[in-house]
Design brief:
Layout: H1 2-8, E1 13-16, H2 26-53, H3 60-77, H4 80-89, E2 93-95, H5 96-129, H6 134-137, H7 140-158, H8 160-167, E3 175-176, H9 183-187, H10 195-227, H11 233-265, H12 272-296, H13 299-313
Helix pairs in contact: 2-3, 2-4, 2-12, 3-5, 3-12, 5-7, 5-8, 5-10, 10-11, 11-12
Pfam family, one: 7tm_4
Keywords: G-protein coupled receptor, Membrane, Olfaction, Receptor, Sensory transduction, Transducer, Transmembrane, Transmembrane helix
Membrane topology: Multi-pass membrane protein
Length: 314
Amino acid sequence: MGLANKSQTSPDTFLLMGIPGLEHLHVWIGIPFCSMYVVAVVGNVTILAVVRAERSLHEPMFFFLCMLSITDLVLSTSTLPRMLCLFWLGAHDIAFDACLAQMFFIHSFTAMESGFFLAMAFDRYVAICHPLRHTTILTHARIAKMGASVVLRGVAFFSPHPILLKQLPYCRTRIIAHTYCEFMAVVKLACVDTGATKRYSLSVASVIGSCDGFFIAVSYVLILRAVFRLPSREASFKALGTCGSHVCVILVFYSTAVFTFLTHRFGHNVAPQIHIFIANMYLLVPPFLNPIVYGIRTKKIRDHVLSSLKVKVT
């Protein structure tokens, strides 16, 4: 009731509720969330530092990995600190413009993450299926163009989101039943018909996600076909191990994304706690897992980090 009264006297702010029904557990939920954020920041910063310092890592795979790490840092930092303030400090208020900015960063950088997964899958395809042409196909200039196109796509398709929401009148409650400013959670608060706005958002998300997912699947099918044709069983197992860990991260990202999308489209009977929790995992788990899977399991990065630690210890 206090939140409702406060929302009526703060027309320039929204109020984040958190996870409905689990407010009494917010402090405890924040502990694993904070731990995942720390691992994500340390892991992704380490990857960026190692690739920058080690010239032997200046290869297409690691350039794309750095792009993914930057995306993960922005994505997690745009949500986790604010979420922890909500969980631990009870800071429910968020300025309207700050809410729109957070929404833009979340949706645009999620699209960029998907695009960089596709770029990395293409890199693995070229490296395994056309190893002799790898450096000629993925030149530095071409890598830069691919990275720029992924960024521009995310910005272009999701810039309309805050602009559209800025134009809507909000005469209902200002309480957002979520832990962050999700587009669908905010658009529900408008007091006009928002069907076209919702359809635009869902269409953009579905087109980007389905296209990226399709081409990633095609890349790994071709990779597996090439791997099974390798004469050495040891080489086949090594390639399968690397691809398997990459596929696991991609599956986590897309499965949570698909669940969130289907919940908005069809899952009106899904409990809000489940939907919000999965939506949080959608933003937290990939930045947490990516440096572990792509960093620790990559021998060149692992060896460089271990050698640096040995130097510091001695």
